[in-house]
Amino acid sequence: MSKPEGLDADAIRALLRSEGEGIKENTRHFNAERYDRIDEVGADTHEQYRSEARRIKEDAIDRLPELIERTREAVEANGGTVYVADDADDANRYVTEVVEGNGAESVVKSKSMTTEEIELNEALEAAGTDVWETDLGEFVVQVAEEAPSHIVGPSLHRSREDVTALFEREFDHDEPLDTAEKLTAFARDYLGERIEAADVGITGANFVLADSGSIALVTNEGNARKCASVPDTHVAVAGIEKIIPGIGDLHPFAELISRAATGQHIPQYLSILTPPVETPTVDFEAATDPNFGGNDADRDFHLVLIDNGRMAMREDDDLRETLYCIRCGACANSCGNFQSVGGHAFGGETYTGGIATGWEAGVESLDTAAEFNDLCTGCSRCVNACPVKIDIPWINTVVRDRVNRGTDPGFDDLLVDGLVPDEETAGTPLRKRFFGNFETAAKLGSATAPLSNAVASAGPVRGVMESLFGIDARRDLPTFERTTLRDWASARDAGDPVVDPRRRVALYPDVYTNYVQTDRGKAAVRVLEALGCEVVVPDVCGSGRAPLSQGMIATAEQKAASVCETLDPYVDRGYDVVVVEPSDLAMFDREYERLVDADDHATLSSNSFELLEYVYGLLENGADPSPLTAGGGDADGVAYHSHCQQRTLGLEPYTEAVLDRLGYDVLTSDVECCGMAGSFGYKTEFYELSMDVGERLADQFADAAENRTVVASGTSCMEQLDDLLGPTPRHPVELIDPAA
Amino acid sequence: MSSVAEFQQSLSQSNTESTVTTPETFAETLAAVVDRPAVGAALPFEDVDLADAPVTLNPTPAQLREAKTGVTAAGLGVASLGTVAIQSRAAGDELVSIHPETHVVVVRERDLCPDLDAAFDWLEGRFDEGERSFVLATGASATGDMGALVEGVHGPEDVHVMVLADDE
Description:
With 740 residues, chain A is an alpha/beta fold. Chain A is 52% helix and 11% strand. In chain A, strand 5 and strand 6 form a beta hairpin.
């Protein structure tokens, strides 16, 4: 078993207990606020800003070398200095020299993940300089000697009580610090004295403007404004990717960044500084001299731009997008797993959340990224949350693939290489190959059912599965059907064909619908036929979702090519492809863009539909709903959990609309993900995390489930709801099945 | 809704008090809203100034530290957000607006713009003129880092905006 270091069940359990509560409350609050502010500004307007921001970043990274030189020219023309550092040591050496050259004894800093990345504090302290973090969250983690758990809220994992205990232990303070107000007042006064005494102020930069040599800082507390104005020396440290051409390009980011990060329309302070600024420095040692101490000290400004792997990321077609990141944390806040476990599990040396994989792989190493990469389930809830449209799940998949390929082949491979029909190199962990090749297991399981089910669920076998594949024995295994959906459909083909069909449908038999949950497939056929469609179930392989989720991109490509080859002729003959399992539709729509050629992707993407989306379309176009099984209004309550990838595609309203039209009273969940996410919830070390994420869904449905039928669009969600709520949840199509 | 009314409504949403005044009533109004001792940065306006106001211009560091109120101008107000633009000037606007616990901002009605889009048009114009350091400030300084939302962190806890009405 090759399990990444530091992500075993014990470590996750400990974090769920110690930090889960604070993380959950804070991330879910930010996430909800984000939705609310975007609603207020309007989805279309928000989307325009995203497109504009994306275009600006693509262009800026494309022209980065030129923009670095323009920045240098502008800053120097203003009287400042630019230093482009190759790596962390280079940057730390330069900043240390500036600080020592200034004769500085102490430095005050505002929050900067980039200085966390290069471990600047440690370098300065090693040189004998006192360093004070003035952002309250950074101050907390500095005092606690721990790493930030969140890009925007470094101490997000700590409750008020935690901070009280920490401060009362670390500081000799007379009064109790038992409220957020008292803690804030104490930290402000304590750090205020340090700001007054500091010789150098260090800030990050959210954006650097090449044309004018300006930096933009997005802050709420006011400490960055003080760090940049009180001392006479200001050092700004930023990754080279922060550069955009000019002030005119800043507008979309100013609209987006705080909405995405914390659900604010605008931060308390958006500072746009073109140092050296005209603001007088303050010499608190000359306390009684007018004009802020009367010192006419010239301001000294240094902009330290950091490469540290970024230029190489720029050359990497799969990692490049990471450089568009504006560090807002929306991918963390919208992530079901992150909401439970936080950045101390879901993060690397510096960066946390979904995009951390890209950052850590780029600036640290593949090994660092490998430590937490498996926490991304590919659910895609971060995709629409990201203000610059980074395909974060794809970056995570690519890194997973590279990690797989970088693993030394071991005994497992010799055992499995001949058995599994995949395209993976020796070295891909055995359990990943097992989950990635689930289709093979399903075929075998179905062909030998019910014996296979009986054997698989037997105690000794579950023990072997747990030790060999890390499949948690606490999970029920899928039960394979002896008669597949395709067998059933072929047997029916001999029956009465639909005369003069309204539409022709090729129903995609995904692995689960074909071998495990055949009932939902049968219901789909009956519903579509009742609405006047001719339905065929093609002989087609899995979409590649399973191997892709394990980072087995080559295998996924092979599956994708085969699916296109099988389905294209149907499309050519006028068939619509209708898909039951949302994660497979998402493959056709999103991931196939990267797995098959553009024509094949366009063909399949534009001719494939989610099942209830398709039913909605049929009804809108005049199909008679009367054969379908209708609900009885309020008495017929439904608790509906859509599917994460389905919601990313914006398709859940169709299910709601169809059920509503047929007289069902629908309550829809609003959690980001159920926590099951395909194979994720089966994996031993993730079982408890998966259940913790699922609890949020269970809580929403707890009361409702008593008197409502629970339905879910996705396979995984059904399995998870089964485990959480007991009664077997059904697919929405089974409710409206004429045979119901 | 006139831009002043919208501006005031946005200010109230960010817990910011506001008062509409005229050049004639400015001194009296200011004296009423300033909590003393107070420091200030000279206003770059023609029809009002801080010469007779109860504020200290070009203060000593001790006065800056002890001040309860800081009075500055804003070159721009954004009606949709209640945001004001404070410029980094030699008069010390940046310092006066961030150190004391109350910040009193004077903005002229004619300097109100509808939204952030217009604010950036204005900023581009200022940049062209060589004025390139501003903070767009909205409400009081705030943090959630101590376990609950607290206003008044390293910056002001209260902000009071005085809108100087244009001559009719």
